[in-house]
UniProtKB/TrEMBL annotation:
It is found in: Cell membrane. This is Branched-chain amino acid ABC transporter permease. Keywords: Cell membrane, Membrane, Transmembrane, Transmembrane helix, Transport. The keyword Transmembrane applies. It is a multi-pass membrane protein. The keyword Cell membrane applies. Belongs to the AzlC family. Its main location: membrane. It comes from Streptomyces albidoflavus. Residues 10-23 have a biased composition (Pro residues). The lineage of its organism: Bacteria, Bacillati, Actinomycetota, Actinomycetes, Kitasatosporales.
C-alpha cells in the first residue's frame, strides 16, 4: 500500500496550527544594531568639540587626530587638552588623563569573559573598550548580541569620532582664536555632559561636589593639571567618611 502524504497548502497553515515566526536572533540583531548606531552617532559627534578644543589648546591638526586615533577615550582626551590649555605640564596632564582612562581596564576584565574573542581579535577589541561600547555590550543577553553591540558601537564611534576630530581641528584652525568664538568652553562643557549621566546616587553626587571644590579651590595655588590629580582624592575621602558614619557592630554577643 502506497504511503499517503498530506499536500502542503501554499496559503499557509490552517487555523489552530502554530504559525511560523520570524527567528528571534534576526529580530534581536536589528534592535541591537539600531541601539548601537544610536549611541555611536550621538557620542561620535562630540569629536567636533574635541578637535576645536585641541586646536585652541595649541595642538596641531595632526596631534589632535593622533590623540583620537591612538588614545580614543573621550573624557581622557578632554582632560589632557584641558590641562594643557590651562598651562599645565605635559607630564602632569598626561598623568591625569591616564588615571581617568584607567577605568577602561575594569570594563575589559568583565568584557573579556562575555565576548570570549579569539586571540587575534583582542588587540582591536581592547582599543574599543570605552564607556559607550561597554554599556551597550553589557546591556545585551547572549554572547552573539554582546559581541554585536560591542563592535557596532565601537566601530561607529571610532570612525565618527576621528572624522569629526579632524573637521573640528581644521575648523578651529581656520577661524583662528577659538576663545573669541567661545569655543574654549566647548571642552569642559562636553566633558561635563559625558560625566553627568554617571552621577546618580547620593554618594556619587557628594564625591563629584567634593572633587569640584578641591579642583577649583586649588587651581590658584597649584600648577595647571595638578588640581585634577588632587581632586581624585575626593573618592577615597568620601568612602572613608561614609565608613566612619556607619554604626559599628556591638562587641557583646546577643543573649
Amino acid at each position: 500500500m502506497a504511503e499517503q502524504t498530506t499536500p502542503i497548502d501554499p496559503a499557509g497553515p490552517p487555523p489552530g496550527d502554530p504559525a511560523p515566526r520570524i527567528p528571534a536572533p534576526a529580530a534581536g540583531d536589528r534592535q541591537v544594531i539600531r541601539d548601537a548606531l544610536g549611541v555611536g552617532v550621538a557620542v561620535g559627534l562630540s569629536g567636533f568639540a574635541f578637535g576645536a578644543t585641541a586646536a585652541g589648546a595649541g595642538l596641531t591638526v595632526a596631534q589632535a587626530c593622533a590623540l583620537s586615533l591612538l588614545v580614543f577615550t573621550g573624557a581622557s582626551q578632554f582632560a589632557l587638552v584641558g590641562a594643557l590649555a590651562a598651562g599645565g605640564n605635559p607630564f602632569t596632564a598626561a598623568a591625569g588623563a591616564f588615571f581617568l582612562g584607567a577605568r577602561n581596564a575594569f570594563y575589559g576584565l568583565r568584557l573579556s569573559q562575555l565576548l570570549a574573542l579569539p586571540r587575534a581579535a583582542r588587540p582591536l577589541a581592547a582599543h574599543w573598550v570605552i564607556d559607550e561600547s561597554s554599556a551597550v555590550a553589557l546591556a545585551q543577553r547572549g554572547r552573539r548580541h554582546t559581541r554585536l553591540g560591542f563592535f557596532v558601537t565601537g566601530a561607529t564611534l571610532y570612525v565618527l569620532w576621528n572624522v569629526t576630530t579632524l573637521l573640528g581641528a581644521l575648523g578651529a584652525e581656520a577661524i583662528g582664536d577659538t576663545g573669541a568664538w567661545g569655543l574654549d568652553a566647548a571642552g569642559p562643557a562636553v566633558f561635563l555632559a559625558l560625566l553627568a549621566p554617571m552621577v546618580r546616587t547620593a554618594r556619587e553626587r557628594v564625591t563629584a561636589a567634593a572633587a569640584v571644590l578641591l579642583g577649583l579651590g586649588l587651581l590658584p595655588v597649584l600648577p595647571g593639571g595638578v588640581p585634577v590629580l588632587v581632586a581624585a582624592l575626593a573618592a577615597p575621602a568620601v568612602l572613608w567618611a561614609e565608613g566612619r558614619r556607619r554604626p559599628r557592630p556591638s562587641e557583646e554577643s546577643p543573649r
